[in-house]
Amino acid sequence: MKTGLILRFITALFLLSLSLAELAYAEKADQDKPVILEAEKVSVNDVKQIYDLKGQVLLIKGSIIVTGEDGHIEVNPEGYEFVDIKGTPDVTASFRQRREGPADEFMQGLATQVAYNAKTEVLTLTGDASLKRLLNMQMLDQLRGWKIEYDDVKQYYRVTPPKDAKPDDLPLARAILSPRRKATLEK
């Protein structure tokens, strides 16, 4: 019984990674946009390029919008942001970014914690995480799990269970994927 559940979980992840071959990349214009920060409290260390935010956090950079209750942002010497936003039991952290190309396509995620590395273009959603790919506001793909990593450069999703998960707890990840042919034709 346990082996069958684990095999289904691994198969689902493999099929998920194969289905992403035709996705568009993140909007490249976001790289050159200014960062807009809002929160109840903001602490700025301009020398080290470190920003700490508390309460009703809102980060906007081009088409990227990140919200939560507690935020930490670091900018490296090359100008890339490393964003870590946490929610609370009452307020979920969120991430939304427009995809590159002519279609109205977005990646949208919710979790207890949202981390985004602008240099590597890797999004990590941790804690009751969900990630959707939307085209013209219609859901194409949806992932749910404890931790979701999305690598925009490699066009790769990974859903992992908590370290203390037991085989009886499966399925710990769920994916709903639209056929690539239909999604491509709609663009």
Notes on the structure:
- This protein has helices at residues 2-18, 180-186, and strands at 36-38, 41-45, 50-61, 64-75, 81-86, 93-98, 105-111, 113-117, 122-135, 138-151, 156-160, 174-177.
- The longest helix has 17 residues, at 2-18.
- It has a six-stranded antiparallel β-barrel with strand order 4-5-8-9-7-6.
- Strand 4 (64-75) and strand 5 (81-86) form a beta hairpin.
- The model is unreliable at 1-24 and 182-187 (pLDDT under 50).
- It is globular.
- It is 13% helix and 50% strand.
Could you list some keywords that capture this structure?
13% helix; disordered C terminus; disordered N terminus; 2 helices; globular
Total helical segments:
2
Number of strands: 12
* Main sheet overview: 6 strands, antiparallel, barrel
Q: Work out the helicity level.
A: 10-25%
**Helix/strand order, N-terminal first:** HEEEEEEEEEEEEH
Alpha-carbon Rg, integer? 17 Å
